[in-house]
Amino acid sequence: MSDEHPDPDGGVRRDDEGAVLPDPGGEINDEGENDAVGKAGGGRGPSAPPALARPRPLLWPVVLGLLLVTGMGLGMVLGLSRSAAVTLFGNGSGEESSLNWAGYVAIDGHFTSVSATWTVPAVRAGSMPGSAASFWVGLDGRSERSLQQIGTTSASYRIGPRYGAWWEMLPGPATDVPLAIAPGDVVSASVTSDGRGAFTLSLRDRTRGESFSVRRVDRAAPLTSAEVVVEAPAAVTGQLPLAAFGAVRFTDARVNGRPLGSFAWSRVDMTVASHHQAGPSPLSDGGSAFTVTRQRH
């Protein structure tokens, strides 16, 4: 039995020698237990102090970082897809020079389709950061008012190489093709017109088994040339240097369903400030294949 007893005067608890006892912090129930004592543990001692709240980690730096990385990635892809027809040609006599194109152009006819297949080249180690190379097929590249094109781009950034696909109908902006493109992928691309202003631009990644197609209208398109080209593309900052891609071989290059070489054509070399940047080989495989090689400097 406890020596504790209540003080009859003020409810203050004292022991047998008159010393004041601490307040138990709760009322005594019918069973003589203190309600303030935690029953789950079965103990009679004072309840444990509340646990300190752990500070929550700041999430906004993480979210901001993800947004920045995403934005940079999107910006890179959009940068890849810029391909402008800023090209200087000769007189169309079969040998021409361009500031940013290398390949073959079918001329002197009415062209409603163009297609080709190539393997996406890897950007070589040591490529200048900010350089790029686009590989595409298109119609009306010699026209001053329109161009319908679709292709891939291999580019070099300070953080590493980037690869993408895009389509464009000038004078409108370039648009990304929502396919994952990697070096070594075999792709086929085509541009087809119904002859009345409607165009279908298609790209198929044969390696991954994925395809993309889009339909657009350009009723002013003259349909006077067809291109299978490597280009040093332009970005919002201007003309980009041509990336070091080694070489790319175009196969099954066809215009209006026939080999490109069966039409009058012009061979285009890329030359900048008297420096030969890239050029195509002679046509082979019945006029449907050729290789564009990037020159080393």
Account of the 3D structure:
- This protein is mostly beta strands.
- The protein has a single domain, classed as Peptidase G1 (Jelly Rolls), CATH 2.60.120.700.
- The chain has one helix and 20 strands.
- The protein has a 16-stranded mixed beta sheet that branches.
- Strand 7 and strand 8 form a beta hairpin.
- The protein is globular.
Computed over alpha carbons, the radius of gyration is: 37 Å
Helix content: under 10%
Specify the CATH class.
Answer: Mainly Beta
CATH architecture: Sandwich
Compose a concise summary of this entry.
The protein has 297 residues and is mainly beta. It has one helix at 60-80; strands at 5-6, 13-14, 95-98, 101-106, 113-119, 132-139, 147-157, 160-170, 175-176, 186-193, 198-205, 210-217, 226-231, 234-235, 238-239, 247-255, 258-259, 265-272, 275-280, 290-294. It has one helix and 20 strands.
Features:
16-stranded mixed sheet; Jelly Rolls; mainly beta; disordered N terminus; 297 residues; two-stranded antiparallel sheet
Draw up the topology in text.
Elements: E1 5-6, E2 13-14, H1 60-80, E3 95-98, E4 101-106, E5 113-119, E6 132-139, E7 147-157, E8 160-170, E9 175-176, E10 186-193, E11 198-205, E12 210-217, E13 226-231, E14 234-235, E15 238-239, E16 247-255, E17 258-259, E18 265-272, E19 275-280, E20 290-294
Parallel strand pairs: 3-18
Antiparallel strand pairs: 1-2, 4-13, 4-18, 5-10, 5-16, 6-7, 6-13, 7-8, 8-9, 10-11, 11-12, 14-15, 16-17, 16-20, 18-19, 19-20
